[in-house]
Amino acid sequence: MSKILVTGGTGYIGSHTVVELHNSGYTPVIVDNLSNSNIQILNQIEKIIGVRPEFHQFDLCDEAQTKTFVQENPDITGIIHFAASKAVGESVEKPLKYYHNNFFSLINLLNAYQGKPINFVFSSSCTVYGEPDTLPVTESAPVKKAASPYGNTKQIAEEILEEVAAAYGNYNTIALRYFNPVGAHASALIGELPLGVPQNLLPFITQTAIGKREKLTVFGGDYDTPDGSCIRDYIHVVDLAKAHVAAIRLLEKGNPNGKYDVFNVGTGNGYSVLEAIAAFEKASGQKLNYVVGPRRDGDIIRVWGDVTKSTEQLGWKAELGIDEMMASAWAWERYLQENPIG
Ligand code: NAD
Ligand code: WQD
């Protein structure tokens, strides 16, 4: 079966995608520099799928090493490019780190494949929509000025892919715009492994419930939403992983929309922070210690995706709901307590 390069494959979304690629008959090959993941994740993946995926540790910003890897692996037919730096707040403090890592890795990879037919799936984000004018937001909604250097790397990367796909004949590309990925694999053997204090809601909730954090602060309770807290389209990471397999399949079949395409990957449903907390409490049987505090700078008030295009043209639809997201995230946090990683 086809060999698919998964850059960032020991990371959160990458590790789940490696599992789903294997389950769908593909042979995933991982490249990761372990800058934001742990080598133990390879053992965890092996426990789930029964084989140890091929792993190469290097930095994709190293042009020579990237070229050598591509030359030595001519049987790779597709790439899922997760490798990037992703912390929004850090990107404001260290924009050059983000522009360096997220662009050089992308450009080195594309360069190394010049002249070779390649299917390329890119990790983009609903952050490109900013605060949408209409909801649910469709793929044709305008891209708004990025609120952070991180967001800007996703917008510019989409433009790079579109231009590169149009200029050369060999790149077949899809950008997947993820909404808010949460949850963990049903085995509880892989999940999100935040370094330090989590910036995202779900790991903060589970770390509070397990006692690693004292309390969660809900960022703002006075927004113009039914309960005053912000609304997001949370998507189970296993569903998200499956969307990548669907994207690779579409590219292999030939995408009638052309050499560059974009899809929303969400559930189409919005949940407020307070609803997410209630769903967590129900799924875990734990009372969460939280307070409603001030707003966080730069937060979007409400966003959820229109998933008509992904349903009809990608042939993919989210299957898991908020209860499974919360229960799996909680099972993973409890697993980590017994079996620390890192
Ligand atoms: P993650 O940090 O868990 O995974 C990224 C992986 O890439 C890590 O294992 C890291 O070590 C590796 N990496 C980073 N730079 C590298 C380089 N130069 N060379 C080799 N490896 C490198 O992040 P994630 O949550 O799994 O996100 C994966 C992708 O999805 C990223 O591109 C991210 O921007 C995008 N995304 C994430 C979210 C989210 O909320 N998690 C939402 C939208 C988009
Ligand atoms: C979700 C909701 C917070 C923490 C970020 C990036 C985005 C994308 C996904 C990569 C918001 C609230 C959070 C807390 C809270 N990443 N919250 N207390 O901000 O929607 O998106 O991750 O592409 O680009 O910006 O995700 O998980 O930080 O927040 O109340 O301690 O939870 O205000 O409403 P966000 P998040």
Automatic annotation (TrEMBL):
Pathway: Carbohydrate metabolism; galactose metabolism. Its cofactor is NAD(+). GO terms for molecular function: UDP-glucose 4-epimerase activity. It is an enzyme of class 5 (isomerase). Pfam families: GDP_Man_Dehyd. The gene is galE. Residues 5-327 form the NAD(P)-binding domain. Keywords: Carbohydrate metabolism, Isomerase, NAD. Gene3D superfamilies: NAD(P)-binding Rossmann-like Domain, UDP-galactose 4-epimerase, domain 1. InterPro entries: NAD(P)-bd_dom, NAD(P)-bd_dom_sf, UDP_G4E. It catalyses: UDP-alpha-D-glucose = UDP-alpha-D-galactose. This is UDP-glucose 4-epimerase. Homodimer.
